[in-house]
Every structure is written in C-alpha cells, then in structure tokens.
Amino acid sequence: MNNEAKPVPVAEKVLAGTDVIQGEDSDGGFEVSEISELSKMGYQLLKEKKIGDAIGCFNRILEVDENNNYALVGIGDAARKQNNFKEAVEYYRRCLSHYPGNNYALFGLADCYKALNQYHKAIEIWDQYLLHDDRNVTVLTRIADTYRKIHDFNHSKEVYLRVLEMDEKNPYAIIGLGHLHYDFKEYRDALYYWEKMMETSKDNVDIRVLTSIGNCHRKLKTFEEGIPYFEKALRRDNYNFYALFGLADCYRGMNQQHLSLEYWNRILEIDPRNKVILTRAGDAYRGLSVFDKASDYYHRALNVEFDTYAVLGLAETSKIQGKYDDAAESLRRLIQQDPKNYRLYLELADCYVKKNDKAKAIAALGEFQRQGIRNVFVTAELEKLKA
Predict the structure, then answer these.
(1) What's the CA gap between 293 and 275, in Å, rounded?
(2) Using CA atoms, how far apart are residues 78 and 68, in angstroms rounded to an integer?
(3) 108-137: string of b/e by CB count within 10 Å (b at 16+)?
(4) 162, 264, 274, 277: which is deepest, by most CB within 10 A?
(5) How far apart, in Å, are the Cα atoms of 194 and each of 21, 173, 323, 339?
(6) Could you read off the pLDDT tens digit of each residue along the chain, which spans 387 residues?
C-alpha cells in the first residue's frame, strides 16, 4: 500500500492560510497550474458570494504576479459586487494599463462608471469594448440604457434598434424602447413596445410591463383601457404601489371619486404619512361633498409637511361651504410661500367677490401686478371687476 501523503490542493491551502510556495518554479513564483487553480477557485467563490475568500485567492496570485490580469479583474469584480465602485475602478484600470483590450476589465469598468452616474465615461469604455466585440447585445443594451439616462433620445433609440436587428425579441431592448418613448412623452410609441413585450412574454410578462402599459393609458387619458392592466398587476401583488396608484388615478380621471377613494385609502394603509396620497384622498372626499373628511385628510397631509395642494384643497373646501374668510386665510398662507403664482390671487379675489367685497378683490389682483408680472387671466379678471 502506498503510504505517501496526498497533496493538498492549492486553493484549499490558501483558504486554510498555509504556505503554497513549495511548488515554486525556477523564478521563485507559483507554477502556472497553481495560479490557474487559484484563479478558477477565486471566480467560483465569487459565484458562491464568498467574497472575502475569493479576494484571498486573488491576492495570493498578486503576491507573486502583481500584474496578473485574472486576479486584478477578480478583485475588481469582488469590489463591484460589494458596491465599492471606486475601488473596483482602480483594479480594472490597473489591469487595462497592462492589458488594454481585456474585455472583462472594460465591461466591469463601464458598469462601475454607470453605477457612479458617470454616464459619459461609461459610454466611452463600452465603445472601447465594442472594438473587440461589436455584436455583444448585453453591452449594446447597456449603452442604449446609458444614453437614455443622459436623455440622448436619438443615440439611445439607434442602439436599441441595432440590438433588435440581431435579436428581434430581446426583452431588454424592447422594454428600453418603451421607457425611452415614455420618458420623452411619446406614450403611443411606448405602448407599441410594451404591448410587443406582452405578446412575447404572454402570461409571464413582468408586472412592471403591466403597470407601464397602464401608465401610458393614464397619460393618454384613455383611463378605461388602463384599468385592466393595473387590475392584472394587482392580482399578482395586492400591495403594488404603482397598480394601486394607477387605479386610483384612473378612477379620478373618470370622475368616479368613490372608486378612487378605495385605492387611495389602500395605499394609506401601507404608507399613512404619504402627503401626496392624503391630499388626493382629500380631493376625492371634497368631490363627493364629504367636507369634514376632506378637511381631515388635508390637515393630515399638512401635519406631515407643508403642501401647496393640501392648503389649496382646504381653501376650495372652505369656499364651497361658504367659509370665505377661512378660504382667504389659507390662500394668504399660500401666497407667502409662492408669491408669483397667479392662480392663488385669482382664487383669493374670488373669495372677496363672493363676499361682495369688490374693492378687496381688485386690491388682491393689483398686489400680483405690482410685482411687475403681466398675466392675461389676471388682467381679464381686473377689467371685468372694474367694468
């Protein structure tokens, strides 16, 4: 029987902290096979999310080969996975200073710049990557996404369409084109791409596609067409904010305030201090002439933070109830916050008109004009009052 001890694999020795240099070559470094084994182990550990152990492997390589491209990229990848983007940039750049065409370093570096919101630098690096691999759809969609981030519509669309020429069902390009057109308020074109995504994915469509289609209909004011998409999203996730908000806003747009309230209040069960939703719910109660509830919701919004729409809602509620002094007081508070908003002066003047105090109404509009601002609506109302 052979009683010789079995050799311990290099990677296990690194993880155990033991010496692995006994296999040195004539130059005093690791044998090539040992470096290769360490490198493979490091990347496997990265996949297993054992970041610290992976860095240990890569650092042992760098101790004997300080410019090893696998180790430099490996540590860059490890830092990137930990969101240490600036540290990752240093390692990728160090690799590229010795191996300018290293695709993995270029890819990682560009991703870091994107994460750091340095979009122009990211595009520059990805362009270098494409010199070596100009049909990589993953890189191309990232470039298109980044152009979208910097609001470069034409370049973004051009690159997305280039991806679709190579892969007509590429979901990232289709969804990207939907977002691109939506960002530029081209809602019908956005619908085209998101509906195309629906056809491609069928029953497995991402919930975000459903809410995006619903939002296009909301923006186009085709509310009834948007509702089924939000409802389908809500069946997938009972607490999805975008589906709840979309349904509430569609019913609001259809002037079905009682239905909108159901969804505003469901959002408030999850997020009771959301001042925007509190104000929208207040508006709905005001529309239903439930004035006590409306006032309560507006005050709850204002208890969170000052909100122009909540104060305006209070003023409108007071006016409807004939409480013109209360309404005027609310409007005066708003004018202090936003003295150049002509609508506030018109509302204030209307309070005084309803109190049969034409002189105060004229004075309120004159106060606006003394700021040197000319507004056709204010001018028209003044002329009407002075006639």
Answers:
(1) 15
(2) 16
(3) bbbbbbbeeebbebbbebbebbeeeeeebe
(4) 264
(5) 58, 11, 49, 42
(6) 344 433 334 444 444 433 333 334 434 445 677 888 999 999 999 999 999 999 999 999 999 899 999 999 999 999 999 999 999 999 999 999 999 989 999 999 999 999 999 999 999 999 999 998 899 999 999 999 999 999 999 999 999 999 999 999 999 999 999 999 999 999 999 999 999 998 887 778 899 999 999 999 999 999 999 999 999 999 999 999 999 999 999 999 999 999 999 999 999 999 999 999 999 999 999 999 999 999 999 999 999 999 999 999 999 999 999 999 999 999 998 999 899 999 999 999 999 999 999 999 999 999 999 999 889 999 999 999 988
Look up the pTM and report it.
Answer: 0.79
Tell me which long-range contacts 100-106 makes (C-beta under 8 A, separation of at least 24). Answer: 101/131, 101/132, 102/69, 102/73, 103/129, 103/132, 103/133, 104/73, 104/77, 105/69, 105/72, 105/73, 105/76, 106/132
* Cα torsion through 379, 380, 381, 382, rounded to 10: 50
Question: 10 Å Cβ neighbour count for 292?
Answer: 10
Backbone phi, psi, residue 101, to 5°: -100, 15
